[in-house]
Specification:
The protein is of the alpha/beta class and about 325 residues long. Helix content is about 45%, strand content about 15%. The strands form three sheets. A five-stranded mixed beta sheet has the order 8-7-9-6-10, with helices on both faces. It has a three-stranded mixed beta sheet with strand order 1-3-2. A three-stranded antiparallel beta sheet has the order 4-11-5, sandwiched between helices.
Length: about 325
């Protein structure tokens, strides 16, 4: 596991001024006490995903909130990445709602804090497949069993009456896009930048787009969550970190070019073009309007129905969420 540590030679005041120039610093931030800790740790996805650009572009904003040490922890694999919070190596990060619910089910101590964005995922298929129902009897690529693609596809298929245990042949692969191009699989769930690459190369076509197709477009795709210890022990730091990240989300809407450029400069984005196009197509401007509790409830119900989890939505909301910070920030960061 690699830790990318940014210790630049500029003063915290200069960082604050720079961040204020980007989005403005609301007065309540400075009326609060400083963060209880000055180090903040988040993760870099093993497979670069442009949809989490708000995290990658937030360093100056985090420094403006009083974090003098910003660490991006890079796990060696997806499996290792999902253990970072449980192992105490990451303070705050984001992931898709179904994976967060799996973490909760496994006992990972975490608190969901806010929504990040809606709709970065597309279900890509060969030209002979025209709908999710057409996946019956087909070969579908997934990165791993019980990984994000597998879980979401089971939910999507069940939503239209397809029995994934009986009707779909799962193909585990790390290169689903190429297998689709070669006709060796019939579909796979694509995360950025793969939908854009497929479009540019004219590989397959989307049969479901979570940014626009119901019910998926009605709920957050990714949510922001923190280590339960970090949130409970350092509430000022937790709120300040969340404020920086949500301001970075706003930056992705108001100045996507700057957000994409910052992500590329740090070496996190796949390319400037793909990062910018992802910011234009995913929906980042809804964190004030959508309710993250609705997202958790929706996915928890669907996953419980399919036996993926045993925890009820009410149990999740009671034990694994903390909405006080986002509720306050909705009032502070009014557009």
């Amino acid at each position: 596991m690699q830790i990318i540590q940014n210790r630049r030679g500029f003063l915290a005041g200069a960082a604050a001024a720079g961040a204020s120039g980007l989005l403005g610093a609301p007065k309540p931030a400075w009326a609060e006490p400083p963060p209880e800790v000055t180090r903040i740790r988040t993760s870099v996805y093993p497979k670069v995903s442009d949809c989490v650009t708000p995290f990658y572009a937030a360093e100056e904003l985090l420094r403006a909130e009083g974090f003098t040490e910003v660490e991006f922890v890079q796990p060696a694999s997806d499996a290792e990445g999902l253990r970072l919070v449980a192992d105490g190596q990451v303070d705050i990060e984001s992931y898709d709602a179904p994976i967060i619910l799996q973490l909760i089910e496994s006992g990972t101590p975490l608190k969901v804090l806010a929504g990040l964005h809606v709709g970065c995922i597309e279900l890509l298929a060969g030209l002979h497949v025209t709908s999710v129902k057409d996946l019956r009897g087909r070969r579908v690529g997934i990165n791993q069993l019980n990984g994000l693609g597998h879980v979401l596809l089971r939910l999507m298929a069940a939503n239209v009456g397809v029995d994934t245990d009986r009707d779909i042949e799962w193909v585990e692969t790390s290169n689903a896009l190429e297998l689709l191009a070669e006709g060796k699989i019939d579909a796979f769930l694509a995360t950025p930048p793969d939908p854009l690459i497929a479009r540019d190369r004219k590989i397959g076509h989307p049969i479901l787009v979570t940014a626009t197709d119901r019910p998926w477009s009605q709920y957050f795709c990714c949510l922001i969550y923190g280590s339960a210890d970090f949130v409970s022990q350092y509430p000022v730091a937790a709120k300040r970190a969340l404020r920086a990240l949500l301001k970075s989300v706003d930056l992705c809407v108001s100045d996507p070019q700057a957000a994409a450029r910052r992500s590329v400069e740090k070496g996190f984005a796949s390319s400037y073009d793909y990062a910018l196009r992802t910011l234009a197509e995913a929906r980042y401007g809804v964190w004030r309007e959508y309710d993250p509790a609705d997202t958790l409830t929706f996915y928890a119900l669907r996953m419980k129905e399919l036996g993926m989890i045993t925890t009820s939505p009410n149990e999740v909301l009671a034990a694994n969420t903390d909405w006080r910070f986002v509720d306050e920030l909705k009032r502070e960061l009014k557009t």
